[in-house]
Protein backbone atom coordinates (compact mmCIF):
# COMPACT_ATOMS: atom_id res chain seq x y z
CA UNK A 1 0.00 0.00 0.00
CA UNK A 2 1.47 3.36 -1.04
CA UNK A 3 1.03 6.49 1.00
CA UNK A 4 1.42 10.22 0.46
CA UNK A 5 2.53 12.74 3.05
CA UNK A 6 0.64 15.99 3.53
CA UNK A 7 1.10 18.99 5.81
CA UNK A 8 -1.90 19.91 7.95
CA UNK A 9 -2.28 23.05 10.02
CA UNK A 10 -5.08 25.04 11.60
CA UNK A 11 -6.57 28.17 10.12
CA UNK A 12 -5.06 31.35 11.56
CA UNK A 13 -6.91 32.77 14.53
CA UNK A 14 -6.52 34.98 17.55
CA UNK A 15 -4.85 32.94 20.26
CA UNK A 16 -2.36 31.04 18.11
CA UNK A 17 -2.25 27.65 16.39
CA UNK A 18 -5.47 26.10 17.68
CA UNK A 19 -7.07 22.76 16.83
CA UNK A 20 -10.56 21.69 17.86
CA UNK A 21 -10.82 18.18 19.36
CA UNK A 22 -12.89 16.94 16.42
CA UNK A 23 -10.21 18.18 14.01
CA UNK A 24 -7.55 16.16 15.81
CA UNK A 25 -9.79 13.09 15.64
CA UNK A 26 -10.22 13.65 11.91
CA UNK A 27 -6.46 14.01 11.40
CA UNK A 28 -5.93 10.76 13.27
CA UNK A 29 -8.51 8.94 11.18
CA UNK A 30 -6.93 10.26 7.96
CA UNK A 31 -3.50 8.90 8.91
CA UNK A 32 -2.55 5.50 7.53
CA UNK A 33 -2.54 2.87 10.31
CA UNK A 34 0.91 2.09 11.63
CA UNK A 35 2.36 5.50 10.74
CA UNK A 36 3.24 8.41 13.00
CA UNK A 37 2.17 12.06 12.85
CA UNK A 38 5.05 14.51 13.01
CA UNK A 39 4.87 17.98 14.58
CA UNK A 40 7.27 20.15 12.58
CA UNK A 41 9.02 23.42 13.49
CA UNK A 42 6.71 25.06 10.93
CA UNK A 43 3.60 24.55 13.12
CA UNK A 44 2.44 21.89 10.68
CA UNK A 45 1.50 18.26 11.24
CA UNK A 46 2.97 15.86 8.68
CA UNK A 47 0.45 13.09 8.07
CA UNK A 48 0.91 9.97 5.93
CA UNK A 49 -2.30 9.12 4.07
CA UNK A 50 -3.22 6.13 1.92
CA UNK A 51 -2.69 7.43 -1.63
CA UNK A 52 -5.89 5.73 -2.81
CA UNK A 53 -7.97 7.98 -0.55
CA UNK A 54 -5.74 11.06 -0.60
CA UNK A 55 -8.22 13.37 -2.35
CA UNK A 56 -11.11 12.34 -0.09
CA UNK A 57 -8.99 12.77 3.03
CA UNK A 58 -7.79 16.20 1.94
CA UNK A 59 -11.33 17.34 1.22
CA UNK A 60 -12.56 16.15 4.62
CA UNK A 61 -9.76 17.97 6.40
CA UNK A 62 -10.38 21.19 4.47
CA UNK A 63 -14.12 21.02 5.13
CA UNK A 64 -13.39 20.82 8.86
CA UNK A 65 -11.56 24.16 8.68
CA UNK A 66 -8.00 22.84 8.42
CA UNK A 67 -5.40 23.82 5.84
CA UNK A 68 -3.73 21.12 3.75
CA UNK A 69 -0.42 21.88 2.03
CA UNK A 70 2.39 20.00 0.29
CA UNK A 71 5.50 18.94 2.17
CA UNK A 72 9.12 19.21 1.08
CA UNK A 73 10.86 22.06 -0.73
CA UNK A 74 8.06 24.61 -0.57
CA UNK A 75 7.22 27.84 1.23
CA UNK A 76 5.72 26.86 4.56
CA UNK A 77 2.47 28.17 5.97
CA UNK A 78 2.73 31.66 7.44
CA UNK A 79 4.42 31.73 10.85
CA UNK A 80 2.18 34.28 12.53
CA UNK A 81 1.78 35.79 15.97
CA UNK A 82 -1.19 35.19 18.28
CA UNK A 83 -2.87 38.48 17.26
CA UNK A 84 -2.95 39.57 20.89
CA UNK A 85 -3.99 43.13 19.98
CA UNK A 86 -7.16 41.77 18.41
CA UNK A 87 -8.05 40.57 14.92
CA UNK A 88 -8.60 44.01 13.40
CA UNK A 89 -5.65 45.90 14.88
CA UNK A 90 -3.19 43.04 14.32
CA UNK A 91 -4.37 42.42 10.75
CA UNK A 92 -5.73 38.88 10.98
CA UNK A 93 -7.73 39.05 7.73
CA UNK A 94 -4.69 40.31 5.83
CA UNK A 95 -2.46 37.63 7.38
CA UNK A 96 -4.90 34.99 6.15
CA UNK A 97 -4.77 36.40 2.62
CA UNK A 98 -0.98 36.50 2.77
CA UNK A 99 -0.91 32.89 3.94
CA UNK A 100 -3.11 31.80 1.04
CA UNK A 101 -0.92 33.67 -1.45
CA UNK A 102 2.52 32.45 -0.36
CA UNK A 103 2.09 28.96 1.13
CA UNK A 104 3.04 25.79 -0.72
CA UNK A 105 5.10 27.36 -3.52
CA UNK A 106 8.02 25.29 -4.81
CA UNK A 107 11.39 26.77 -3.86
CA UNK A 108 15.03 25.56 -3.90
CA UNK A 109 15.11 25.31 -0.09
CA UNK A 110 12.09 25.44 2.26
CA UNK A 111 11.23 29.01 3.23
CA UNK A 112 9.71 30.23 6.48
CA UNK A 113 7.73 33.44 6.10
CA UNK A 114 6.74 35.25 9.28
CA UNK A 115 4.08 37.75 10.29
CA UNK A 116 3.82 39.97 13.35
CA UNK A 117 0.74 42.07 14.01
CA UNK A 118 2.73 44.73 15.87
CA UNK A 119 6.27 45.80 16.73
CA UNK A 120 6.35 43.50 19.77
CA UNK A 121 7.17 40.74 17.29
CA UNK A 122 6.14 37.82 19.48
CA UNK A 123 6.31 35.52 16.43
CA UNK A 124 10.06 36.30 16.21
CA UNK A 125 9.85 37.73 12.67
CA UNK A 126 13.56 38.52 12.37
CA UNK A 127 14.39 34.81 12.64
CA UNK A 128 12.54 34.01 9.39
CA UNK A 129 13.79 34.18 5.81
CA UNK A 130 11.07 36.71 4.96
CA UNK A 131 8.84 38.54 7.40
CA UNK A 132 6.11 41.14 7.56
CA UNK A 133 5.60 43.38 10.59
CA UNK A 134 2.44 45.48 10.84
CA UNK A 135 3.20 49.00 12.03
CA UNK A 136 -0.20 50.53 12.70
CA UNK A 137 -1.56 51.26 9.20
CA UNK A 138 1.49 50.21 7.16
CA UNK A 139 3.82 47.23 6.95
CA UNK A 140 7.58 46.69 7.14
CA UNK A 141 9.19 43.89 5.14
CA UNK A 142 12.29 42.05 6.35
CA UNK A 143 14.47 39.47 4.60
CA UNK A 144 17.45 37.23 5.23
CA UNK A 145 16.93 35.65 8.63
CA UNK A 146 18.75 32.37 9.27
CA UNK A 147 19.10 31.27 12.89
CA UNK A 148 20.11 27.66 12.35
CA UNK A 149 23.52 26.74 13.72
CA UNK A 150 25.80 28.63 16.11
CA UNK A 151 26.12 31.77 13.97
CA UNK A 152 22.56 33.11 13.68
CA UNK A 153 21.73 35.93 11.29
CA UNK A 154 18.69 38.14 11.80
CA UNK A 155 16.58 39.44 8.92
CA UNK A 156 17.26 42.99 7.80
CA UNK A 157 14.77 45.69 6.93
CA UNK A 158 14.05 45.55 3.22
CA UNK A 159 11.11 47.91 2.69
CA UNK A 160 9.24 50.14 5.12
CA UNK A 161 5.81 51.77 5.28
CA UNK A 162 4.30 49.52 2.63
CA UNK A 163 0.59 49.81 1.93
CA UNK A 164 -1.36 46.61 2.50
CA UNK A 165 -1.95 46.06 -1.21
CA UNK A 166 1.80 46.21 -1.95
CA UNK A 167 2.97 43.55 0.51
CA UNK A 168 1.88 40.35 -1.23
CA UNK A 169 3.17 41.39 -4.71
CA UNK A 170 6.53 42.36 -3.17
CA UNK A 171 6.93 38.97 -1.51
CA UNK A 172 5.82 37.15 -4.64
CA UNK A 173 8.47 38.99 -6.67
CA UNK A 174 11.14 38.01 -4.15
CA UNK A 175 10.12 34.34 -4.24
CA UNK A 176 9.97 34.32 -8.05
CA UNK A 177 13.44 35.85 -8.25
CA UNK A 178 14.82 33.34 -5.76
CA UNK A 179 13.33 30.44 -7.72
CA UNK A 180 14.70 31.73 -11.01
CA UNK A 181 18.22 32.74 -9.94
CA UNK A 182 19.31 30.56 -7.03
CA UNK A 183 22.26 28.25 -7.59
CA UNK A 184 21.01 24.73 -6.96
CA UNK A 185 19.89 24.25 -3.36
CA UNK A 186 21.20 27.66 -2.31
CA UNK A 187 19.82 28.84 1.03
CA UNK A 188 17.86 32.06 0.88
CA UNK A 189 20.26 33.93 3.18
CA UNK A 190 23.23 32.99 0.99
CA UNK A 191 21.24 33.99 -2.08
CA UNK A 192 20.68 37.46 -0.59
CA UNK A 193 24.35 37.77 0.32
CA UNK A 194 25.31 36.93 -3.25
CA UNK A 195 22.93 39.25 -5.09
CA UNK A 196 22.97 42.00 -2.46
CA UNK A 197 20.21 43.40 -0.28
CA UNK A 198 20.01 46.60 -2.35
CA UNK A 199 19.26 44.65 -5.54
CA UNK A 200 16.59 42.67 -3.73
CA UNK A 201 15.14 45.91 -2.39
CA UNK A 202 14.83 47.33 -5.90
CA UNK A 203 13.25 44.12 -7.16
CA UNK A 204 10.66 43.93 -4.41
CA UNK A 205 9.69 47.61 -4.58
CA UNK A 206 6.43 48.09 -6.47
CA UNK A 207 8.07 50.57 -8.85
CA UNK A 208 10.22 47.78 -10.29
CA UNK A 209 9.04 44.87 -12.41
CA UNK A 210 10.06 41.25 -11.60
UniProtKB/TrEMBL annotation:
Domain Nitrite/sulphite reductase 4Fe-4S: start-end pairs: 93-207
Keywords: Iron, Iron-sulfur, Metal-binding
GO molecular function annotations of the record: heme binding; iron-sulfur cluster binding; metal ion binding; oxidoreductase activity
Signal peptide segment: none
InterPro entries: NO2/SO3_Rdtase_4Fe4S_dom, NO2/SO3_Rdtase_4Fe4S_sf
Protein name in UniProt: Nitrite reductase
Native organism: Cohnella cholangitidis
Lineage: Bacteria, Bacillati, Bacillota, Bacilli, Bacillales
